[in-house]
Write a structure and sequence with these properties.
384 residues, alpha/beta, five-stranded parallel beta sheet, 12 helices, 12 strands, 30% helix, disordered C terminus
């Protein structure tokens, strides 16, 4: 009987995984230790594993030579050495697209909460203070520019929702050419253009070596004093210490932050004391609906591989295509594996892009998507 091990989990329970394993006739073992040592110990006899933030470094794969699949409960896979997995013949599966709507909802919510000072007014009310003037200024949507950094699936959803509210949208993405417009009609600018022009700047880019501290102390000075910064992508895309300093010095309107460089956040971090902030504990990816989808799709991918089927959303399908048990699968199934619209990596050596995402999973924290010379958005290639 094939065996799947949940090595670590970010869920309250794994009832869905238990049910799916039972129905598929697969043995399931549950643990919750993300360390490399524990993974090696618990997965010695596993055919597949499901992980949230487990440390799947090269030494883990070297110690688990028979492991067929690592399925991650999220979009990003910075905790998985995908090159080492491929060398080991281990498929790496992710769950792209599950959090597009909820992450974009959360980004817009953070932006509006900052613009309207909602959390500050709420705190005053609970303290018995009825005086909105002490929290001025307050802003409105009309007449403001919403900047989107990273036009992958989530970035496009944020742009769509911001435009629907009445913002003028400007965007930046490595896969798009400045001075043109996107297929939806949004203006494309350089990163500097977006920082200078936008009243709200929402980050939805991958975290790679190139995007680490993409917003930093230097280019933060390009922003308007009335600008709001929103981050639901990866914590280290923004230098949050520099952001806290800018807020203390009244150089920005506010900030809505859901992801942090170190999670859980150190309660003594400067951002905790910065004014005009709305902070949330890496929850942008989660709704009851998206959570169930994440459970089912990540477990299904592991089941598919251990049962000899081609999974969806596999980053390195070549390791499966080379195995005899997969050769009879329809070639269209194999082609679908490489059409991941929003995958993430810290390496840049796989067939991964891309220009955005939260993942959920944020990542729920870490490094997402790799660089690519080719756009992968459904209709963005003609706009390069």
């Amino acid at each position: 009987m094939p065996k799947i091990v949940v090595t670590d989990t970010d869920f309250e329970d794994n009832a869905i995984e238990i049910e799916m394993a039972k129905e598929a006739g697969v043995e399931l073992a549950l643990y919750n230790d993300r360390s490399a040592e524990a993974i090696i110990r618990h997965a010695q006899d596993a055919d597949g594993v499901v992980t949230s933030y487990g440390d799947y470094s090269a030494r883990v794969f070297e110690a688990l030579p028979h492991l067929k699949v690592v399925s991650r409960t999220g979009i990003g896979y910075d905790n998985i050495d995908a090159q080492a997995a491929t060398k080991n013949g281990t498929a790496v599966c992710i769950v792209p697209g599950y959090g597009t709507e909820v992450v974009s909802d959360h980004a817009i919510t953070l932006a509006l909460a900052c613009l309207r000072r909602l959390n500050e007014c709420d705190a005053d009310m609970r303290a018995g203070v009825w005086d909105y003037t002490r929290r001025r200024p307050f802003g409105q949507v009309f007449g403001r520019v919403f900047g989107v950094v990273g036009m992958g699936e989530i970035g496009r959803a944020v742009a769509r929702k911001a435009a629907g509210l009445g913002f003028r949208v400007i965007c930046y993405s490595r896969s798009l050419v400045p001075s043109r417009r996107t297929p939806e009609g949004y203006e494309i600018g350089t990163l500097e253009d977006v920082l200078k022009q936008a009243d709200m700047v929402s980050f939805h880019t991958a975290l790679t070596s190139e995007t680490h501290h993409l917003l930093n102390a230097d280019n933060m000075r390009l922003m308007k004093s009335g600008a709001v910064v929103v981050n639901t992508s990866r914590g280290a895309v923004i230098d949050t210490v520099a952001l806290a300093a800018a807020l203390r010095e009244d150089r920005l309107w506010g900030a809505g932050i859901d992801v942090f460089e170190e999670e859980p956040l150190d309660w003594d971090h400067p951002i905790m004391k910065a004014p005009h902030t709305v902070l949330s504990p890496h929850v942008a990816y989660y709704s009851e609906e998206s959570g169930e989808e994440l459970h089912r799709r990540s477990m299904q991918a592991a089941l598919d591989v251990v049962l000899g089927r081609m999974p969806k959303d596999c980053l390195n399908p070549e390791v499966l295509a080379s195995k005899q048990c997969f050769l009879d699968q329809n070639s269209s199934d194999q082609n679908s594996l490489v059409q991941n619209d929003s995958v993430q990596s810290n390496s840049g050596h796989l067939n991964t892009d891309r220009s955005d995402l939260n993942q959920p999973d944020s990542n729920k924290s870490g490094i997402d998507q790799a660089d690519s010379d080719q756009p992968t958005e459904y209709c963005y290639s003609c706009w390069r």
